[in-house]
Amino acid sequence: MDGLLSGIRVIDCTTVNAMPTATYTMADMDAEVIKVETHTRLRTEGLGPFPDSVPGDKFWNRDGGFHRLNRGKLGITLNLKLPQAVQLFKRLAAVSDVVAENNRPGVMDRLGLGYKELRRVNPSLIYLSFSGFGQTGPWRDYQGIGRMFELTSGLSQFTGYPDEGPRRVGGAWFDPPNGWMVVFALLSALHWRDETGEGQWIDYAMYQMAVSTMGDAILDWQTNGGNGRIMGNGHPYMAPHGAYPCQGDDQWIVITVEDDAQWEALCRVMDNPEWTRLPHFSDGLNRWKHQEALNQRMAQWTCLHNPHDLMARLQEAGVPAGAVQNARQVMTDPQMRYRGFFQRVQHSKESGMGTRLYNGQPWKMDKTSTYIRRPSPDLGQDNEHVLGKILGVSEAEIAALYELGALGKEPNPMPKRQAQMTLEETRKRFADEIDRGSMAGYDPDYKKALETE
Amino acid sequence: MVNGALSKFRILDLSDYIGGPFCAKLFGDYGADVIKVEPPGVGDVARTVGPFFKDDPHPEKSLLFFYLNCNKRSVTLNLESSAGRKLLLKLVKGADALIEAFPPGYLDSIGLGYESLEEVNPRLVVTSISPFGQTGPYSRYKGSHLIYEGMGGIMYTSGAYDREPLAHGHPQSYYIGGITAAYATSAALYARNRSGKGQHIDVSLAEVAAAHHTGPTNRFAYTGTIERRAPKHEPGSPKSGPHMEGIVPVKDGYVGATFQRGAATRASLSDYLKLLGADKQADPSFVTPSFQGAIPQHIDDLVLSVLKEWKKLDYFNTVAAGSWVAAMLQTSEDLVNSRQLHHRGFYADVEHPVMGKVRIPGEVYRMPACPYKLRSPAPLLGQHNTEVYCGELGYSSEEIVLLRQQGAI
After folding, report:
1. Interface predicted TM-score (ipTM) over 0.85
2. Which domains does chain B have, with CATH numbers?
3. In whole angstroms, what is the distance from residue B266 CA to residue B244 CA?
């Protein structure tokens, strides 16, 4: 069997994080994704990291954040301020299955590339417009970005240390799941097209996906008048349930006990210390009520152990436990390695980037393989292929389009060269950051650890 | 008859708690016929999980279960009995996908592994959701929300420098696992409609967390640096707690304060202060920190003191209308009353025999040709046994009584 989406062509007119996540996922499934950029504005996906922290001359082609989010795609540049470029976009839409865009509501219409316009050239086209709050309503023009939806969705009602107040957790929390939901949305439209032959326009709001994870909280307020409360690492009815310190600097284990059987198994791993038989730890309800005292006792035991060893012992005894892993540990995790979760991408010689690892998809299928099919494109890398091979534009016409500024392979205007540090200066900066505590560590042999050298 | 985008599919939902049910719910919301297969007597474990209607922990009053299982039918079926397993195979014959979240190996051990299901229905897509995946050294390990966020790298960079790493206080890792399972299942169905062959999908919730938290692993793979929680003396870092770029208090709650404009640019600090009505405090000598740079303590203190005079909705509207990135911490109450959500017709009103009329989050994305529809409230345990077993599989009512007496349903 081929890839899941072989034969589907997607025009990817998107930036930042959530939407590029949707389209790289489809590229991993073998859709032909054509990323449409412009050379007249700098790429916004990432602000580094750069290979060994060296931006290099063409830093816009060496950005790890960009490469992570755009692997598997073809890349073209179209300066949509020019009517010639707009025409090319339309011609491409006429031979594509999906157009996905995340410009501000109204921008595509102003360019003459809104759904109504493109439907005329391709009635079976599926067109998805993605924005923070949707294409209608009083907040339609408000900017929405992933990390802000942690607050606006209500998730922050629950998250933080109970004695301090709300905090953010994770990166831009609602970016990746919105990207994944977009894939589901596009697939539902593809299924519908299979039935009816009709394309359609999908009006997608990040806000709505984020709030769709809050159903229980929304019902709680309506029926009990309850708003969310900050939980720390605690659980509404389980204890022990938290992160406990382990041997070494900033090492932690999470342990989450669901029932009496797991509690007894935990006690056996601890060698049944006397305190576990105290009356206020006698059953689930008591343990939950006295969780603060319980957590203190637990910490006195966990801090004598290495988190990974302890995880293995607890899991073998049937107790849910896991090491709190840093980025290096995640990337060298034996389970992730066994399943090949991180995938190697060999970048071109001229890029000087070597081999880099990227996250794969968190699922496998027994008959179809899903993988990174090519590195992400340099700026305008596939102009000739896409315009020439797919649209049949002649070489002379393509040359004229470059001349006109409708196409480009170099940013225009040329951005300032980024500050370049020597390896020695970089290492000194890292050492300072480790000193200040803003970085946990630096592994100069990271390529060996990742087997990319 | 086609009326929803996914109406042509029948999904068997054998999963419980949040991840699998959320996945199956998305199919139901866009038209699929979802049959929830629950163990007799107790049903889905989510029926025992709060919050509950009027705080009464009755199995038909779990609000979590209610939300996650609207647009589904429920049958009871005991997989531990041979009559129950036969029934399941009959259901499998007419199904397009089966979602399950049993411990890896369980279905094999009772003769219902993927190969057996494939034999009965080669077009079936089987989606298995598990803590660490079906293969590998940790495949038998147990999971939980904290374990996914811990093992996947999310916790290590979240929380305060000198305190324990922090996870989300609401079990987000299961929801994002459900979305992942949903698109993977839909993609496998799309491929199946071309090849004629179903397949087995193996979703790992720990990997979903790692696929989410890619910033730090990307940086390690490029530079060898290992990120952590930021120390207190890094004001303005999103990781350093109640500061700008974190979550800051205002008069009536909290807002997300930033002078970010656009996806990756910081606008002028003095413009931001002017917007907040603090022109006088805006010292022309202030330098706007770059997007990567931390915000100096005196600026942080200044912005925080100015914000104390604001109300969250006023702040949100003012800042967002000026096309800055804005956020306010909304409570459940705020969400229920959100003008934007009402204008968008986001909520679906459900009439429930016990709860009366309530609103649930409805349309995630708008597709006017074949929109989201609320067709039914969450089912009572086994509510559709007769409808499905007699009406669709052709059992007589005597047989149903017998199956019930034998504990098969």
Report:
1. yes
2. 10-211+344-405 (3.40.50.10540), 248-328 (no CATH)
3. 13
